[in-house]
Amino acid sequence: NTVAHIQNNVPASTLNLSQFNQDQVNQLIQQLQQHIRFILLQNRQGKTRLAKYYVPLEESEKHKVEYEVHRLVVNRDSKFTNFVEFRTHKVIYRRYAGLFFSLCVDITDNELAYLECIHLFVEILDHFFSNVCELDLVFNFHKVYLILDEFILAGELQETSKRAIIERMSELEKLE
Amino acid sequence: MASSNSLMDSLFQRSLEDLIKGLRLGESTFISRSLEEIRREIKLTDLSTKSVALQKLSYLAALHGVDMAWAAFHAVEVVSSSRFAHKRIGYHAIAQSFSDQTPVMLLITNQLRKDLNSSNEHEVSLALECLARIGTDDLARDLTSEVFTLLGSSKALVRKKAIGVVLRVFDKYPDAVKVCFKRLVENLESSDPQLLSAVVGVFCELTAKDPRSYLPLAPEFYKILVDSRNNWVLIKVLKIFAKLASIEPRLAKKVADPVCEHMRKQNVGKSLLFECIRTVFSSLSDQETALKLAVAKIREFLVDDDPNLKYLGLHALSIVAGKHLWAVLENKEAVVKAMSDEDPNVKLEALHLLMAMVNEDNVTEISRILMNYALKSDPLFCNEIIGSILVACSRDSYEIIVDFDWYVSLLGEMARVPHCQRGKEIEHQLIDIGTRVKDARLELVRVSRALLIDPALLGNQFLHPILSAAAWASGEYVEFSKSPYEIAEALLQPRTCLLPDSIRAIYIHSAFKVLVFSLGAYFSAQEPTSPPLAQESTSSGHSVVNGFTYNSISSLVNMIELGLCSLSGTIDVEVQERAKNVLGFIGMIKHEIAEKATSQNSETEAHRAIAFMEDVFSEELGPVSSTAQEKVPLPEGLELNENLEGLQEICREVLEPMAESDYSSDKVSFSVAKLRIRDQEEASSSLPPPLESSSLLAEHRKRHGLYYLSSQKSEDHNDREGNDNNTSNEYPPANEISVDSFKPKKKISKPRPVVVKLDEGDEPKRKPDASSSNDESLSRAIQTALMGKGKGKEKEKERVKENHEMNVDTENIEQSSRREKKNKKNGERSSKRSSRRQRGKEASVTKPVEVPDLLL
Prior knowledge:
The complex is a heterodimer. By secondary structure, chain A is an alpha+beta fold. Chain A is built from seven helices and seven strands. In chain A, β6 and β7 form a beta hairpin. By secondary structure, chain B is an all-alpha fold. In chain B, 68% of the residues lie in helices and 0% in strands. Chain B contains 42 helices and two strands. A two-stranded antiparallel ribbon of chain B has the order 1-2. The N and C termini of chain B lie far apart (81 Å). Chains A and B meet through α1, α2, β2, α3 and β3 of A and α2, α4, α6, α8 and α9 of B.
C-alpha cells in the first residue's frame, strides 16, 4: 500500500525503471551481500576486543570464526603478506602492537584499499583516545562501536575522512 | 518494599566500568554473578538502570559470548526512551542481537518509523544504522517510504546513511527498487564526495550481481571515473566498469583511456593503481595500449620489497595468464624468485604462474626443479606442487608430454616424496596412461615393480591408491615384466595385510593374472617339444624371457598357493572370493603341471582351462569416455524407471551364474569398455612402433566409431605445438635455476607415442566453465522472460512514456529551478533511451540493453 501510495504521488522513475523486469529484480537482488563480512579486533592471546558482524551468524559460529581467524593470523611472520584466505573469503589483517585488526571481505575486493581502511580506523582510534592502547578499547567498548558505526555501515565503508568522524564523535558525546 | 529495593538497585548498580574492572580480576564466577544482577536490574522500570543493565549485557555478549536473546524485549523498551543515550544503547543491543527469528521484531517497526521521521539527525542515523543491520522483509516493506524520503534529505549525514541502507532494503523488498531507484541515481551526480562514495558503493554491489541492467548508467559512471579524485570511489567505479565492459566490448575501448590516465599519474595510490591493473587484465585485455601499460606497471609490484605488493603482482599476472601468456613470460625471473619466498601465499601464486608457463619443451626441466622444491617444502606446499604438476601434465590428454617413460617414472618418484598425499590422482594417471599409451607400458610395469617390491611403502596409507594402480598395471601388462615370479611374490608379501580390503582384492587378482600368464607361457613352451631356450627368439616382441622350467613354475604355483591359503578365511568377501577362485584354479591344474613335464598330450583339461583364462585376460582395456553410458542404446524390454522391488527375486537367479564366470570384471569401471584389439597383438610386434599404433588406432576407430568424433585432432595438435616452439623462442633465458628451462629445446629425440584420445567426455574432472554456463542460462532465462512478456511490455512502455512526459511537466512546476533542469535532462535522456531500446529489440534479442551513444 505504501508503495502504491508513493507511486501515485511521485511517479516511478523518469529514468529507467522499465528495464527492471520484476522477476529479474527478485532473482538478482536476493543474492546481494555486504562487502565486509565482519571486523575483528583480537589480541595476541586470542581475546576478542571488538567484533562486529555484518552477516547474521549464530553465536557458536561466531566463536568458531574468531578462533579460526586468530589462529590464521597470529602465527604469520611480519614479512608475510597481510592477506589470508579464509573459507571462501579472505581476511585482510594488520597488526598494531599486540592487537590484530582483521577484516573479512570478498575474494575479489581490493586488498590494499581495505588495508588502508584498517589503518584509517586505527588512526581515528588513536586520535580519539590520544595514543590508543588496548585498555582504552576495553573500557570504552561502546565508543569504539560508535566510531565503527560511523566508519562502516551495512558492510560498506561510509566515511573516509578522519576529521569528519572525529567531529561527529564529539557531537555525539555532547548528546550523552 | 519493592520500590525501596529497586531504589537500592539503582543507587548501587554497577556501571559498565565496574563490570569491566571486575572482569579483569577473575572471570567465570564473576560473569554469572553479574548476569544475575543484570537480570534483576533490567526488569526495573527506571530506564537509566535498565539501559545500563542492557549495556553491560551487550558487553558480555560481544566479548564473552553470553547469550542475550532473552533480553530482546528489554532492548525494545530502552529504544523507546526519549533520551539519546538510552536510545543509543538500545539500538546497539538490537543491532547486535536481533535476527530474523526474533519474536519481538514486530514491535520495533513503529519505533523505527518514529525515529526515522525524527528531526534529530542523530536519532535518524541511529535508526538507519539499525535498519541496515537487522532489516527484515517486513521492515523493509513498511519503511520503504521513510527511506525514500531520507534519500532526498538535505542533511548529508542522513542522506549518506539512507543510501547505505538502500542495499538492504532492495535485498529484502525488491519492490522498493521502483520507489527508490530514481533518487538513488540522482545521487550519482552529487558533488559531495561522501555521498558519491556511498552511492557508488551501492551500485558496485548491484552491478556485480546483474551488470546488464546497469549498462544505461554507463555515462554517469564514466563521468565519475574521469572527474573523481577519491581513490575509494574510483576503485568502486573501476569494479563497476570491469563488470560492464565484460558484457559490452565497445565500452572497454572507451574506458581504456581514462584508466590509462589514472595509471600514468605520478603519485597515484597503490590501491587505485592495482585496481586499474586488475581491471585491465580482467576486462580490458583486448586494449593493447592499456594492456602494455598495465604489464609495465605490474613489474613495479613484482620487484617491490613489500610482500603484499609482490603477492598482488603475481595474483594479477595469474588473471591475465590465460589470455596473454607473454605478460607472464616477460616477468618469469620474478616468478621464479618468488618460488623461494617465505610467505606461502606468494609461493602458491608463483607456482600457479609457473605451471601456466609449462609447455612440452620445458616440462621435464620445470618438473625436475619443482620436485626438488617439493622435497624441501612443508607438507602443504609440497602437495600443492605435486598437485599442480599432475594437473598441468595431464591437461588435454597429456598434451604436453612427449616422453611418457619419463613421465611415468616421475609419477613413481612422486610416490616416494615423504609428504605425498596425492595418491588418488597419481593412481588415476597411472592407470589412465596404461590404457591410453601403449608405448609407455614397459616403463609403467618397471615403475610398478619398483613400487610393489618396496615393503616400506605399504605402511603409508596415502600411497595405497598408487600401490593399487601399480598392482593392477603389473597384472594387466605382465607380459612386459622381466620376472613374473618377483611380481607375484611382491603382490602376496605378508605386509599387504596393511592394505584396505578393496585394494587387497586387486592385489590378488593381479597375482592371478601373473599366474595365468606364466602358466600359459610354460605350457606353450612345452608344446613344440623344444627346449625352453628356443622360445626366447619367438617371443622377442615383448623383450621378456619367458623361460619357465618345471621347477620355476611349480615354485611359483606353490608360492601363490601358500600366500593365498591364509586369505581364504578372510572376513571381507571380495578378498575371500578372489583368493578362493585362484586356489580353485590352482587345484584344478596343479597335478597336470607335473604330468606335462612327462607326457606330451596337449589336450588336457588344464591346457584348455589355461587357454580359456588367457583368452579372458587378453582383451585389452581402453579409456572410457565419461559420456559413454549415454551412448549405449537402451536394450529392448529394459525398464529403467520402474520400481525395482521385484529385483530381489530376479537377482537370485541371475547373479549366481554370473559370479562364476565373472573373472573378467577386475575393476568395474574398466570392464565397461573392453576394447578388443587382441588380434592386432600379433601383427603389432612385427611393425615399427608409430605405424603399429596408428594402425591400431585406426582399427580401434573402426570398431568403436561410437566413441570417436573427428580424426584430425591429434595431428592438429602436433602442428600447433610446432608453432608454439617458434613463438616461445623469443624469450631467452635469464635467471640461474629454472629460467634456463624456458629455453626451448628444439630436438625431440623420439616421436611422441600415440595417446588414445576420446574426443569428448575425456576429462570428467574438468567441467566446461560451470560458472559461465550458469550465467548464460540465467541471462537466457531473463531474455526469454522478457520476450514472453513482449506484448505486455509494449503497453507498459507506452504507459511509462506517457508518465515520463507527465513527470516532466508536473515536476517542473513543483521543483525548484535547479532541480528542474536536472529532471528535464533525465527525462530526455530516458525517453531517448527507451526509443533506442525498442530499436535494439527489433535488431537483436541478444543485446537487450544498448549503451548510450554518448560513450561510443
